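HUMAN: I'm a chemist; might I ask for a sequence paired with its structure tokens?

ASSISTANT:
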Amino acid sequence: MDIEFVRSRFIKHFDGKTGNIYTSPGRINLIGEHTDYNGGFVFPGAVDKGIMCEIRPNGTDTIMAYAIDLKDRVEFKVDDPKGPRASWARYIYGIVQEMKKLGVDVKGFNTAFAGDVPLGAGMSSSAALESCYALALNDLFGDNKVSKWDMALAGQATEHNYCGVNCGIMDQFASVFGKEGCLMRLDCRSREFEYFPFNPVGYKLVLLDSVVKHELAGSPYNDRRNSCENVVKHIAEKHPEGKFETLRDCTWEQLEEVKDEVGAEDYSRAKFVLGEKDRVLAVCDALNAGDYETVGKKMYETHHGLSKEYEVSCEELDYLNELAKANGVTGSRIMGGGFGGCTINLVKEELYDKFIADAKEKFAAKFGHAPKVYDIVISDGSRKVC
């Protein structure tokens, strides 16, 4: 992000005085998909694209916010019971309310923000926005007394309470806790996490955005969650002595015991989740050993599982995965919930140009438009710039 650009817009749209500048990143998730609600592991990292804001207390009880990219301005009172209507402003309003609940004495302020997180690419621009303002309000009005975890949880609560999105904690966690050159294994059950080195010398990390999102009949996410819960219920009935809350608590042997009872579809979905738990742990070992070939192999295995077992892929994503294989790409998989969006690809530098050119040409010939390309570098989390 361009600091001088954000500052120039802030000066222009307010009183000519400068404030403090903060930034928070978007994120990728290398592996660990559809595991959060199953009590498993995710493996995100912060990226070099995010949200940047300038903010300055204004001595009133009014918040005046300007969205630079949208050229839209909103004002609301700190204690407004309803908040603004503009969807982007509700993220700021929500964070204000959640930080107040944590004891931060938020007063009126002027702010302007901009971002370079691609919208719709699965890099969580909303979490970056929430984390950016949580950090700013904690610094300006809270004497930095709110912990990083509570800031991340305030972002999640903002989504739940003010924006109508029942998200997990991964996006806000990655934005707040990100560390340059490291991915993070987050245990979604205990919230324990660990940094793992990610320095793929000789490789590039690139997202290919299919620019499609398929709306499927029914509730595909709820259906899959119900499948997982059904398997857990059957296993728990066979083992009353155990404690089975999610598939994280179940073994391969226990899954095989209920295979005929739960049906082929639920069995297949549970099989993916148990396999994904094992793959995340294998990637951790591979990263510690600097073995990016194994990392890539596990990425392909995850894509296969998401496509054939969990059934959340689509023709466009499977085609991008096939193009990656054909071009010798080390690893490739769907990133995110599925049914559209991106693949994340680990590519050797010497193969990169040919792969991108081939993917653009062949995807456009088949689907009528080229995929968008986003090169990614793993970067630091939320921080004060100046």
User: Anything to note?
Assistant: The mean pLDDT is 94.
